[in-house]
Amino acid sequence: MKTEDVVLGILNEKSQTGYDIVEKIKTIFSHFFDGSYGSIYPVLHKLENKGKVTKKIIVQEGKPNKNLYSITESGREEFNKYLRSPVQTEVMKSDFLMRLYHGEYLPEEQIKQIIIEEINRKEQLVEELESQFEVWKEDMSSYQKLCCQIGIESYRSEIEILKKFQGH
Amino acid sequence: MKTEDVVLGILNEKSQTGYDIVEKIKTIFSHFFDGSYGSIYPVLHKLENKGKVTKKIIVQEGKPNKNLYSITESGREEFNKYLRSPVQTEVMKSDFLMRLYHGEYLPEEQIKQIIIEEINRKEQLVEELESQFEVWKEDMSSYQKLCCQIGIESYRSEIEILKKFQGH
DNA sequence: AGGTTCATGTAACTCGTTACATGATTCA
DNA sequence: TGAATCATGTAACGAGTTACATGAACCT
C-alpha cells in the first residue's frame, strides 16, 4: 500500500482538499495508517502531475484559498488496480513493547509507570475513535463502520491484555 | 525509537553478528519492529564509526567470515539514554484494514476471502511466535517473555475479533 | 492576549526498500 | 538437482519527517 493509493482511495469517495485528507487520516484512519502534511501535499502534487487527480482552486472570504482535488478516470483505474493487488502484511512499530522487552534495565516502578501510561494512551484512543465514529458515521459505508469497530475492539483487547499482565 | 537504539539494545544483551541481529528481529521482534539486512548492516557500520560498537572478524572453516559486534561503554550510555527518553506512540500500518475500508468497491466474495486470509495469516503468526518462544525462552528475561506473550495474545484477540465480524 | 482552526507549501535531511552481487555447505 | 542456511554488503531509488514560512478569523 503506497500513500498514493491511500490518497486516491480517499478522493474516490468524494473531492476534497489536502487539509481534509490529512484530517481523515489523523482521525478515522489513525489505527491503520499514518500521514501528515509533509507527506500528503507532495503526494497530491505528484498525483496531479501524473494526471490521476485534478485541482480546482476555491477562493474563500476570510479564509485561505482551498485546493479541491478530484480523482480522474486514470486515477480510478489506478485505485482499482491497487484494490485487486495482493494484500501486504501488517507492520507494527511499538516503542512501548521495545521498552518492556528491555524492562530489566529499568527500575520496576518505572516499568509499572510505562504500562499505566500505555493503558491510558489506549483508553484515550478508544474514546477518540468512538467520538470520531459518531462524527463520520452518517457518511460511512458498512465496511467503513466495520473498520472503525475493529479498531475500537482491538484497542479494548490490548487494554485488557495489559491490565491482565499488570500485576506480573 | 531509532533503528540504532534497537540494534544497541540487542547488542547490550550479548555480542552478535548482523545476521544474528536480523534473525532476532525477524522472529521475536516481529510483532513490534521491522528490519532487514538492507537497514541493519548500514546501521552497524554507522554505530561502528560513532564508536558505539566494535567489530571482531571471526574466521570460520566452510562458512563465510563473521563480523562479531560488541557494544562499547559509549554505546551503553546511548542505549540508557534511549531507555529513559519518552515512549513514542505506536504506529500501525495495515493494508488489510485499508482494503476492508474500501470493501464496497469489491465483490462480497472477495472481501470474505481477504478476511479469511487475514485470519490464516494471524493464526500462522501465533504459531510462529509460540515456536520461537520455545526456541529462545531459556535465554529470556521475564520481561522479554512477557513481551512475547503480549504478542501472542494480541494476535489471538485480533483473530477473535475478525471471526466475530466474519458473518457481518 | 493567546490558543485553535483553517489552509498550503517546501527544503534539507534521514531513513528504508529493493535489487543486485558473491559463494560454500548442507539437506531433501 | 535444487532449495535453504549461513554471511556480508552496496547503489539507486523512493519515501517520510522535521522544521520552517505565512496569515486571517474566531473563540476564551
TrEMBL record, chains A, B:
Coiled-coil ranges from the UniProt annotation: 112-146
Entry-linked Gene3D superfamilies: 6.10.140.1570, Winged helix-like DNA-binding domain superfamily/Winged helix DNA-binding domain
Transcription regulation as UniProt keyword: no
Name of a matching Pfam family: PadR
Superkingdom of this protein's organism: Bacteria
Alphabetical UniProt keywords: Coiled coil
Residues annotated as domain Transcription regulator PadR N-terminal: 7-80
Name of the featured protein: PadR family transcriptional regulator
Organism: Sporolactobacillus shoreicorticis
